[in-house]
Specification:
There is one protein chain. By secondary structure, the chain is of the alpha/beta class. Helices cover 62% and strands 7% of the residues. It has 22 helices and nine strands. It has helices spanning 11-31, 39-48, 52-59, 67-79, 83-109, 111-122, 125-131, 137-156, 160-174, 180-196, 203-222, 226-235, 247-256, 264-279, 299-319, 329-345, 349-372, 378-388, 403-409, 434-439, 443-453, 473-484; strands spanning 242-243, 280-282, 288-290, 322-323, 393-398, 415-419, 459-463, 489-492, 502-506. The protein is elongated, with a radius of gyration of 25 Å. Residues 1-7 have low confidence and may be disordered.
Length: 510
């Protein structure tokens, strides 16, 4: 693998990038205070707040690996479990990703690429969005950036400590997000393929084999978790999502750009820069030479990005597992590094300034917009319930996926609270055999039972239609209650939040 040295001291650039990311991501974190935690965040916080020994048990019903939850458990033990406190761990991890990514760009592609990577990372909407969410995606990006550095160091300057870092980061990635398994498989393949290009006895060949061995050693750390992973694979496959198709490439770009509407400038510019980073080589005088087969320095990174998404797509089709654009976190840093190399290949100073100013300006605008975007109506619904619910009333939540966010906002109310499908609690969705539980439940009988239980009291229903996998169960519950208690009153209407909801009041029949 041919790599370009950085040249010169990187300390001032790393410090400046860290300072800028601290200020900008801190601003996004402040903006995110306007919206409470939605399902995924609230579920994560609910699990992380468990006693340490129960966190791993709770994850069997959630479908995630444990590392981020254990870190969040320790973090909230020190800083509390409020929205900002919980999200601040992701913000710190995102800030750390920037200088690590800058150093990786410098080691691989040179100082100009490092400057470009600093500009792109500090203004990346995807980084800001998940810096303000109590989920593991900032940790995934930090570990992938560190992994790039560790693999480079182990290939270029073999030694015990670089190989130990490769092993540790391999284990950490596998225990943070399952899509990282696709990344690790592709990186192993790419490193092995690069090593086999060297003749037998060549130091480069031996270094590649040692890196593959270190990654295998890191994979051994995952083995104690493997039984839980296999259980989750059989029982907690995400019933809320769609099986991946070719659209995952476009949706990943939209997520990179802030996921507000179409691709926009960023969704179009980044792949063009990445393609330039793969194929371009600057020449004296400001010209650029294009090699359609890709430059040796860039081909491994491009193979990692394209190979990971392709392998994930195939695995999703074969196993029926779902895809969400945020899963692209596993390749986001490698993709940005390719784009940074493309920006660095543009030698014309005025063109570079125009492109950089445009990308950073639009990127920060979309970053702050994504951080400030409403994620749930849980606070609005909870406030209405807190004011109106009377002793003896019943609160129905369908789907149960609205429950965890609502539970964080809802004060103590003297009412019976039930969720559909049965088996979950208001505080946490149980994803085990979720689709089967929906199929085995009778939503109309569920509604009639609630009507009998609160015969002389008000029924409040928190609902949102169209959830994948529920087969209109919530609509059937609403329709049955409507028949039993005509003229329901809509207390809260749905608005443009990602996790929108409505609140209805069903008064008892006189």
């Amino acid at each position: 693998m041919v790599l370009t040295g950085a040249g010169g001291s990187l300390a001032p650039l790393a410090v400046a990038a860290t300072a800028a990311s601290t200020v900008l991501i801190g601003a996004s974190l402040v903006l995110s205070r306007r919206t409470p935690m939605w399902l995924d965040e609230a579920q994560t916080m609910s699990i992380a707040r468990q006693p340490l020994g129960q966190v791993l048990t709770a994850l069997r019903g959630d479908g995630s690996p444990p590392l981020y939850y254990l870190l969040l458990h320790l973090w909230t033990g020190v800083f509390g479990d409020g929205d900002t406190a919980g999200r601040s761990l992701s913000a710190v991890l995102a800030v750390a990703t920037v200088p690590v990514g800058v150093l990786a760009a410098a080691r691989l592609y040179g100082r100009r690429a490092a400057v470009a990577a600093a500009l792109l990372l500090v203004s990346l909407p995807f980084l800001h969005r998940y810096a303000t969410e109590a989920r593991m995606y900032s940790l995934v990006m930090l570990l992938s950036a560190a992994g790039i550095l560790a693999v480079h160091q182990a290939l270029e300057r073999p030694g015990r400590w670089p190989l130990a870092a490769v092993a540790a980061l391999t284990a950490a990635l596998a225990l943070t997000h399952y899509w990282a398994l696709f990344l690790l498989a592709v990186v192993t393949t790419v490193v092995l393929a690069c090593g086999l290009r060297h003749p037998a006895g060549d130091p480069g060949r031996a270094a590649a084999f040692r890196v593959v061995g270190a990654m295998a050693a890191g994979g051994v750390v995952f083995l104690p978790w493997a039984p839980t992973f296999l259980y989750q694979l059989r029982h907690t496959g995400a019933p809320w999502g769609q099986v991946a198709g070719l659209w995952i490439f476009e949706s990943s770009l939209r997520s990179l750009a802030g996921d507000r509407g179409g691709l926009g400038l960023l969704g179009l510019a980044y792949p063009m820069l990445a393609l330039l980073g793969l194929c371009a080589q600057p020449l004296p005088g400001g010209a650029i030479e294009i090699d359609p087969a890709g430059r040796p320095q860039a081909r491994p990174m491009a193979a990692v990005v394209a190979g990971t998404l392709t392998l994930a797509l195939v695995a999703s089709r074969v196993t029926g597992s779902a895809f969400a654009p945020r899963y692209a976190a596993v390749v986001m840093v490698p993709f940005v590094l390719l784009a940074a190399r493309g920006l660095a290949a543009v030698e014309h100073p005025r063109a570079v300034r125009i492109i950089a100013v445009a990308l950073v300006s639009v990127g920060l605008f979309r970053s702050f917009e994504a951080a400030d975007a409403p994620r749930t109506q849980a606070r609005q619904v909870a406030a209405a319930l807190d004011r109106r619910v009377q002793p003896g009333d019943a609160v129905v939540v369908c789907p149960d996926q609205l429950g965890p966010g609502l539970a964080r906002e809802l004060g103590p109310i003297a009412a019976t609270t039930v969720v559909f499908p049965p088996g979950s609690s208001l505080e946490r969705v149980d994803w085990v055999d979720y689709t089967e539980r929906v199929h085995n439940s009778d939503p109309r009988a569920f509604a009639r039972a609630i009507d009998l239980r609160a015969a002389s009291s008000t029924i409040w229903m928190v609902t949102s239609p169209g959830y994948h996998g529920l087969e209109h169960s919530c609509e059937r519950i609403f329709g049955t209650l409507h028949q039993l208690r005509p003229d329901p009153v809509r207390v809260v209407g749905a608005h443009a939040a990602y996790e929108h909801a409505q609140l209805y009041r069903f008064d008892p029949q006189r």
